[in-house]
Amino acid sequence: MKLKTLLLGAALTVIAAAAQAQTAVKIGVLNDRSGLYADISGEGSAIAARMAIEDFKASDKGIKAEVVVADHQNKPDIGSAIARQWYDRDGVDMIVDVPTSSVALAVAQIAKEKNKVYINSGGGTSDLTGVQCSPNTVHWTYDTWALANGTGTAMVQRGGNTWFFITADYAFGAALERDASALVKKAGGQILGSVKHPFPGTDFSSFLLQAQASGAKVVALANAGGDTINSVKQAAEFGIVKGGQSIAGLLVFITDVKSLGLQVAQGLVLTEAFYWDANDQTRAFSKRFAEKAGGKMPTMVQAGVYAGTLHYLKAVEALKSKDDGVKVVNKMKEMPTDDPLFGKGSIRADGRKIHDMYLFEVKKPSESKGEWDLYKTLATIPADKAFRPMSEGGCPLVKG
Does the keyword Cell inner membrane apply (predicted)? Predict the structure, then answer.
């Protein structure tokens, strides 16, 4: 009897030790779940984060990973309050996604203050790796400089040398117009004017009339999501393209094109970091994603949530710890990135994730062979050319 008790005690000790050895990680997917960015992030980003945990086989590697979600409603005060509560009271270790640049910048400050990890996939402002960079932040998927570099430079090279901006009146729109204007001028183009619209917006008539009256060859939309969809639809009603002007959607997602339809969206030139139909690996992932997401293909934001979460879990496994946010981010920077959606890449000292970007053109209806067959590739922008040079961003983390 005494031997049985001893053996039982030893077994319980081993079980307890194994349980203690397991690292519990809580991941918060913070985004727009009900507004104009819900399609590009929303529940799809939560699906992507869960798929990353599943594919990493976290539980087999001593990591007990959990996903929680919340809707920041595109409001910095709400986003900040959720982030603070998650980090302070709810045991969240890493926040991912966060579209809407004003919210993205606010969450970056809280992650730094609490020494937690923040992987942004949804927000666009290049300030996240520029003047407001943080040792706790990784900016994964795209940014305003990369979008402007791809679409802006290409449009000027195609003869679109005069521009008029219709810009969302918040941090993202301002950063996108700033970065695009600089790159258009660098490419030899000229800015004829700009106008700011409320965020979110519904009626773009007066702004489009100003763009039409400017005579600019390119009407640039420095907005996103529902604002871009409504702008393009109303531009078609005003006959802007038929009148000889081109529309440059500086941030267009596959879900936007699907919503617009090829009849309206055909010919749009855009820059993205991911396309579901790029190769066998992206197609295999996207098929699995679509089965969980009601048939929808993933956006580049959702792809970035998957890849960023995967790399975060690799860093936690390597460190066997998740408690010091700066240490985890430093490990993420130290390790080369490698995943089925973005391929091989790296994370720079300023927190910028580096990978290829792609210049696409929306297909004509006659060119499409299926419901989600929407893009043709115009160019691959190599990783070392796709993002702003680190020396030009003004990030305090960059030495020299």
Answer: no
